[in-house]
Amino acid sequence: MREELRWLAGTLGEVRDLDVQLGRLQAWEQEADEEGTGSLGKILDVMKKRWAEARKSLLEVLDSGRYERLESSFAQMLRRGPGAERELAQSDKGRDPAQEPITAASPALLLGRYRKWRKAARRLDETSPPEAFHDLRKKGKRLRYALEFVSEVYGRPVQRLVKPLKALQEDLGQHQDATVAADFLRELGTTTGGTRISRGAAFTMGVYSERYAREARVFRSGVLRSKPFRALASGKEWKDFEKAIKDARKSQGNGSGKTAG
């Protein structure tokens, strides 16, 4: 399903990015002087046209046969469950992994996602490109969602990891929004889809593109110095969580362990 979900997310993401950019520019328009308001108004007109085109494409996607097939196939997959994978695992090992206690099934998955996140975090510095920070955000989301799934099993140690991950995800999300907006305005200043704009408006696009780019640089610097980033990258909170994992596995013999299925 991954390729189809990526196709759908790309269509949804374009409209969402334009929503964010329109909201920010409208706020700046209210703060600007008379000259700035006029230039921003022209930029907003161009962006609203782009938004309308993107939304039209989105509605076409949601009405398409491809989306209908995706929806149907995904529903069938959920109803079937991981049957093929389960049968393969049973033939290889003689047991059904879905019947394992979650305390036995989850540690390897969680550790793998944490190692990927920490490896990406350790590669970052002030000179790292925006794409590296966005990659860290994606790895952090995968780790966070996996941790939240087992939060009832491991309790407070999970929250000590999830809390900084959420804070970091927020900062990295704002960084990504600023990066996308800077690139979009830079492109919009030279390619407006046939819409004529004045030199003044094009110049203003450049000014605000640089403003977004500057914001992104500030976010990158702030992330590396932030308490959530340092806490997660140091590994201390993870070591505490590993202790909770070991304690949970020891206690699973009392019959209270949940199963992965």
Please state the structural category.
mainly alpha
Rounded average pLDDT:
84
The portion of residues forming beta strands comes to under 5%
SS field, number of helical segments: 11
Main sheet?
none
Integer-rounded radius of gyration: 23 Å
Number of DSSP E strands: 0
Anisotropy-based shape: flat
CATH architecture of the domain at 101-251: Alpha solenoid
- Order of SSEs: HHHHHHHHHHH
> Whole-Å distance between the termini?
20 Å
CATH superfamily (homologous) name of the domain at 101-251: CHAD domain
CATH class of the domain at 101-251 reads Mainly Alpha
What is the third-level CATH name, the topology of the domain at 101-251? CHAD domain
What does this structure look like?
It is built from 11 helices and no strands. It has 261 residues and is an all-alpha fold. It has a domain at 101-251: Alpha solenoid (CHAD domain). The longest helix has 33 residues, at 156-188.
Compact summary:
By secondary structure, the chain is mostly helical.
Task: Describe the secondary structure blueprint for this structure.
Elements: H1 2-31, H2 34-62, H3 65-80, H4 83-93, H5 102-122, H6 130-149, H7 151-154, H8 156-188, H9 199-225, H10 227-234, H11 236-251
Helix pairs in contact: 1-2, 2-9, 5-6, 5-11, 6-8, 8-9, 8-10, 8-11
